[in-house]
Design goal:
Layout: H1 4-25, H2 31-42, H3 48-53, H4 61-94, H5 116-130, E1 134-135, E2 141-143, H6 144-147, E3 167-169, E4 178-180, H7 186-194, E5 199-208, E6 220-231, H8 235-250, E7 256-263, E8 266-277, E9 285-296, H9 298-303, E10 311-319, H10 320-328, H11 341-344
Helix pairs in contact: 1-4, 2-4, 5-10
Bound molecules: 3,4-dihydroxyphenylalanine.
3,4-dihydroxyphenylalanine binds near residues 266 and 293.
């Protein structure tokens, strides 16, 4: 201990220890802190590592090598810490904002679905396609001729009042009136204008009626129309196909009845009811009308140049909203047109 050289060697070693500690512990939490750190330890003039290197002569010869190695290791550590801190801060600059939390659960993309009316239209159309019917379509803006006259509604006949019509243009000397079609039956006429029998078509589409809006009627709704014209088509064929359809829609054991009715374009005409079971009703259910139908009136065929002695045909038309409401237990028709996602989601 009396040797001054030994004494200063010890001091140099202590300084080295102290330096190593500071290199390790300095907080590098900003670009500025990193700059200060660099100057403090690495600056040629005032850097603490440079200062320590200058003290090597104070150290005993046998320790010099080790002392030098320790300083080099300390210097390497300073450089490594500067580098990693610099990378960290420059990365933070590029993608400003918080680092994403990779442990968060993923977001599920919302998936749309077809509207229940579209689903029902497609289902019904598919059933009839499987019986050999072809799909036909016609315009929603119709003329009075196709919507009424050609379907055997006489002018000023009260039958026209059965359907509350939205007129676009009143009848004039140029045309017989332009309107929003009140049913899909005018497409029967358009098909017969363009095609010779045999004809077998199914017609899905939108129709309009000027009715007071309530839980059971809306100003627009959808129908599916059917038409079959060939030699020897009978009412029995009609009953058979409608029965097959009802079994597909409402189940094998569906109870169904044909009730005599009237439509200007069919003779005879009928309405089809199915028995809808409902335990809350005194009879355990009730008859619900699902469509109108009948044998195409010879007047309609003759008006289109089809020989009614040779050809006969049946036609039917059904309201899709009514059938969907039955199937899905929907009690208010208006909900079908509100586009409330909470409602629509139930049909995906
Ligand atoms: N078009 C009629 C309506 O909207 C429904 C209808 C009844 C269509 C009998 C037909 C039919 O094709 O034969 O009320």
């Amino acid at each position: 201990m009396s040797d001054p050289k030994n004494h200063s060697a010890e001091a140099a070693l202590a300084a080295l220890k102290e330096l190593q500690h500071e290199i390790q512990e300095s907080v590098l939490d900003s670009i500025e802190a990193v700059d200060e750190y660099r100057i403090r330890f690495l600056s040629r003039k005032q850097g603490q590592i440079t200062a320590l290197l200058k003290r090597i002569p104070e150290v005993a010869n046998e320790h010099k090598k080790h002392f030098g190695q320790e300083i080099n290791a300390a210097k390497a550590l300073v450089e490594a810490r500067i580098e990693s801190a610099t990378v960290q801060f420059s990365a933070g600059e590029e993608s400003s904002g918080p680092v994403p939390d990779l442990t968060l659960p993923g977001r599920v993309a919302a998936k749309g679905s077809l509207h229940p009316i579209t689903q029902a239209l497609r289902l019904i159309t598919r059933v009839f396609e499987s019986y050999g019917f072809e799909v036909a379509e016609g315009p929603e803006i119709e003329d009075d001729w196709h919507n009424f006259s050609a379907l055997n509604f006489p002018p000023d006949h009260p039958a026209r009042d059965m359907q509350d019509t939205f007129f676009i243009e009143a009848p004039s000397h140029v045309h017989s009136g332009i309107l929003l079609r009140t049913h899909t039956s005018p497409v029967q006429i358009r098909v017969m204008e363009n095609k010779k029998p045999p004809i077998r078509v199914i017609v899905p589409g939108r129709v309009y009626r000027n009715e007071a809006i309530s839980y059971k009627s809306y100003c627009l709704f959808h129908q599916v129309e059917g038409l079959y014209i060939d030699e020897g088509v009978t009412m029995a064929n009609l009953k058979q196909i409608i029965h097959a359809f009802a079994r597909t829609m409402f189940g094998e054991n569906v109870k169904m009845r044909f009730r005599p009715s009237f439509f200007p374009f069919t003779e005879p005409s009928a309405e089809v009811d199915i028995w809808w079971e409902d335990a809350n009703l005194p009879d355990g259910g009730r008859w619900m009308e699902i469509m109108g139908c009948g044998m195409v009136d010879p007047n309609v065929l003759e008006g289109l140049g089809i020989d009614s002695e040779k050809y006969t045909g049946y036609a039917f038309g059904m309201g899709i909203e009514r059938i969907s409401m039955l199937r899905f237990g929907i009690e208010d028709i208006r909900i079908l047109y509100e586009n409330d996602v909470r409602f629509l989601e139930q049909f995906s």
